[in-house]
Specification:
The protein is of the alpha/beta class. It has a domain of about 100 residues: TIM Barrel (Alpha-Beta Barrel). The protein has 11 helices and 8 strands. An 8-stranded parallel β-barrel has the order 1-2-3-4-5-6-7-8, surrounded by 6 helices. α7 runs parallel beside α8 and α10 runs parallel beside α11. The protein is globular and about 45 Å long. The mean pLDDT is about 95. The structure holds 2-phosphoglycolic acid.
Length: about 260
């Protein structure tokens, strides 16, 4: 077990409404209070609900994150949300490079690199996602794809502390499908990610970065993923919309870290 504080992120995606989002946040903070110290917990609601959900989370030990941001500082970019706007709302974290943005919206490796840079310029901490498609996997290209994605995402960015960077390995074919890689496969990819971080930064920095697994993580499988010394937590989609499931995952992750 590493000395890194484990990390669980809940990505609500384009789900909930205002009342439902606030209620979900309220239920989560009341149940998560007891496990705060064993685990860092992040919630990423949709943009329009950031402020209301942020008010619920304030001072309750659960962190507020956004699901994306623009690579531009501001100006005539219809429909975009800048990192500065997020920081202004009290948002501390932003997810960048989620596969639904890479593959669904066509965000390129280079664009993602510029987004990480912009987020850092505004002092946001980043959850940088990477992951191979099923086709890449069958072609034996998983490690190469991950390396290319992360190199482009991180090459220009600087981090004051390794705790400001979280990397989430999320195989595209595992997201929302109920399928997961074997623990060994996920562990191997996470090991590759940490070696890459050593080469991009240095070993001291790399050893403090939390490297997560994401993709159909549920209460039933969270403990087996987190048992790997290479997996420092999870990025949770579907199961983060259920208080019981999300709390159970956070408990499993925090419990593992406390031995
Ligand atoms: P899932 O999504 O947990 O619903 O598979 C994970 C993610 O997209 O981060």
């Amino acid at each position: 077990m590493s000395t890194r504080i484990p990390f669980v992120g809940g990505n609500w995606k384009m789900n909930t409404n205002l009342v439902g989002g606030v209620e979900l946040a309220q239920a989560l903070v009341s149940q998560l209070a007891s496990i705060e110290s064993g685990c860092e917990i992040l919630i990423c609601p949709p943009f329009p609900y950031l402020q209301s959900v942020g008010q619920v989370l304030k001072g309750r030990g659960v962190l507020l994150g956004a699901q994306n941001c623009s690579d531009e500082p501001g100006g005539a970019f219809t429909g975009q949300v800048s990192a500065a706007m997020l920081a202004d709302l009290g948002v501390e974290w932003v997810i960048i490079g989620h596969s639904e943005c890479r593959h669904g919206l066509g965000e390129s490796n280079e664009l993602i690199g510029r987004k990480v840079l912009q987020a850092r310029a505004e002092g946001l901490k980043t959850v940088v996602c990477c992951g191979e498609t099923e086709e890449d996997r069958h072609a034996g290209r998983t490690h190469e794809i991950i390396e290319n994605q992360l190199r482009a995402a991180l090459v220009k960015a600087t981090f004051d502390r390794s705790e400001s960077l979280v990397v989430a390995y999320e195989p595209v074919w595992a997201i929302g499908t109920g399928m997961t890689p074997s623990i060994d496969d996920a562990e191997n990819v996470n090991r590759t990610i940490r070696s890459l971080l050593v080469s991009l930064y240095d070993s001291q920095f790399a050893s403090g970065v939390r490297v997560l697994y994401g993709g159909s993580m549920k209460p039933g499988n969270a403990a087996s993923f987190i048992a790997s010394p290479e997996i420092d937590g999870g990025l949770i989609g579907g199961a983060s919309l259920s208080t019981d499931d999300f709390v159970a995952i956070c408990r499993a992750v925090a419990g593992a870290s406390q031995g």
